[in-house]
């Protein structure tokens, strides 16, 4: 099985996808005149814009739910594996994916808002919806929905559960299968309470866990702040093959940086648009800008914090892609002996500064990071089930999904880490291919919405979206939304 998954990953994660991800981000950055820079102040302002309603969640709740999906094991274990296989330069390429990907995140989130629908009284949307309504290609929408259910419901949760179980075993010596059962039961208790319970849980947990983690890491960096300039120089030199010690992994730095960058911040992957569509806002661009900002929070803040901590403490390994004469793994750098790539690096780094505390803290942080991500995956998979079964109005399919994901969580927790990550990469790659192609074909409505938003803001208005005014068709939900506001 491992060989088959590896072969599929080699096909899906070929250089073509790397170029597509970076190229699409650059293209949308140019088309939007680098909105990720121009509208940073507006992004801050919009974080608390909009209130929750019976149909949708507030902008902040949508941000928290999307961060729940973005901020996960990729920020702790993912950064570690990127450095392990791509060297310190991989961190730079994660930054590039975040900077360029912020524009991609804007386009996909804005499209999700434009073409959202109401299902069982709640706003629902995402790539499958905008592919059908915007592109008018229903079979493509159905295909994406199926791929999303498989990826978010089956392939991706196992990675999160595996990292949680691994981290807890390292810190507390609790067997992985026991952690798997506990995580699965807590997951079931929350998701059987509905989408609103997920929103409330993530709104409370995500800010606390992200701020707490960053503060601890900043303390570690501050202790050896004199090393920071050298670490930053190492990242840039390694990223452009100017560091002789890591020359053997130069190409891998780009590959792993992009792969882990997309896995972490999800820009272009097509997962965040499902959550963006649930926001109750007066104009799609508002949620598009909020989702752009969430990419920055994920990668430029949380991932960078982990990367700097690993490099400053030296508690990481960089694997030589060329095996030794006896077939054994060799290292270009080895600062964490007998520690496998993943959460163990981060735990070793924290323990080197705070002995006896670091491993426990990372294990707890991993639990919350990964658990909220699993909740986001559930919401994504459930949204696509709602898309496929919207004419049936039956909850049975979502209940089956909940049970299936509980099984996946338990299986993922006892799986081998390498296989779990390969399965997760497969899910990310599949969704990214489908979604990026879709948003390239369907970019015009998002760009028109941005132009309309900027025009209304310049006139001193609180922008309201009327799709017909800017030539966007088949966005019927907005007529109802505007009518209800008038009443």
Automatic annotation (TrEMBL):
Membrane-related topology note: Multi-pass membrane protein
Any Pfam family the entry gives: Na_Ala_symp
Gene3D superfamilies noted in UniProt: Amino acid/polyamine transporter I
Keyword annotations: Cell membrane, Membrane, Symport, Transmembrane, Transmembrane helix, Transport
Highest taxon of the lineage: Bacteria
Predominant location category: membrane
Localization terms from the record: Cell membrane
Family: Belongs to the alanine or glycine:cation symporter (AGCS) (TC 2.A.25) family.
Protein name in UniProt: Alanine or glycine:cation symporter, AGCS family
Species in which this protein is naturally found: Flavobacterium frigoris
């Amino acid at each position: 099985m491992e060989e088959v998954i590896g072969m599929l990953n080699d096909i899906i994660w070929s250089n073509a996808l790397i170029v597509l991800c970076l190229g699409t981000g650059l293209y949308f950055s140019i088309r939007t005149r680098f909105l990720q820079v121009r509208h940073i102040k507006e992004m801050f302002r919009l974080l608390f814009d909009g209130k929750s309603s019976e149909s949708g969640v507030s902008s902040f709740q949508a941000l928290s739910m999307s961060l729940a999906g973005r901020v996960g094991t990729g920020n702790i274990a993912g950064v570690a594996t990127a450095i392990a296989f791509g060297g310190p330069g991989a961190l730079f390429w994660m930054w590039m994916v975040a900077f360029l990907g912020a524009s991609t995140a804007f386009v996909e989130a804005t499209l999700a808002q434009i073409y959202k629908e109401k299902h069982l009284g709640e706003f629902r949307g995402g790539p499958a919806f905008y592919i059908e309504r915007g592109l008018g290609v229903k079979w493509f929408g159905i295909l994406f929905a199926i791929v999303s259910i498989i990826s978010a419901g089956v392939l991706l949760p196992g990675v999160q559960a595996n990292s949680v179980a691994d981290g807890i075993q390292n810190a507390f010596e609790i067997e992985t299968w026991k952690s798997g059962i506990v995580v699965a039961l807590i997951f079931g208790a929350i998701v059987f309470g509905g989408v609103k319970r997920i929103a409330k849980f993530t709104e409370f947990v995500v800010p606390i866990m992200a701020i707490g983690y960053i503060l601890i890491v900043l303390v570690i960096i501050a202790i050896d702040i004199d090393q920071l300039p050298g670490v930053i120089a190492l990242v840039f030199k390694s990223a452009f093959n100017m560091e002789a010690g890591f020359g053997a992994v130069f190409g891998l730095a780009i590959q792993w940086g992009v792969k882990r960058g997309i896995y972490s911040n999800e820009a272009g992957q097509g997962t965040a648009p499902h959550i963006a569509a649930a926001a109750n806002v007066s104009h799609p661009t508002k949620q598009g800008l909020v989702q752009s900002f969430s990419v920055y929070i994920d990668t430029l803040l949380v991932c960078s914090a982990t990367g700097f901590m690993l490099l400053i403490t030296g508690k990481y390994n960089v694997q030589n892609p060329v095996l030794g004469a006896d077939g054994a793994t060799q290292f270009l750098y080895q600062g964490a002996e007998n520690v496998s790539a993943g959460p163990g690096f981060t735990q070793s780094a924290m323990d080197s500064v705070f002995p006896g505390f670091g491993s426990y803290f990372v294990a707890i942080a991993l639990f919350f990071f990964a658990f909220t991500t699993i909740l986001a995956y559930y919401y994504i998979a459930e949204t696509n089930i709602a898309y496929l079964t919207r004419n049936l109005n039956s909850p049975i399919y979502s209940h089956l999904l909940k049970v299936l994901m509980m099984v996946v969580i338990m299986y993922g927790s006892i799986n081998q880490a390498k296989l779990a990550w390969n399965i997760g990469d497969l899910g990310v790659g599949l969704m990214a291919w489908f979604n990026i192609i879709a948003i390239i074909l369907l970019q015009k409505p998002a760009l028109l919405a941005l132009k309309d938003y900027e025009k209304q803001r310049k006139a001193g208005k609180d922008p309201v979206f009327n799709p017909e005014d800017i030539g966007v068709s088949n966005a019927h939900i907005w007529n109802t939304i505007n009518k209800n506001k008038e009443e």
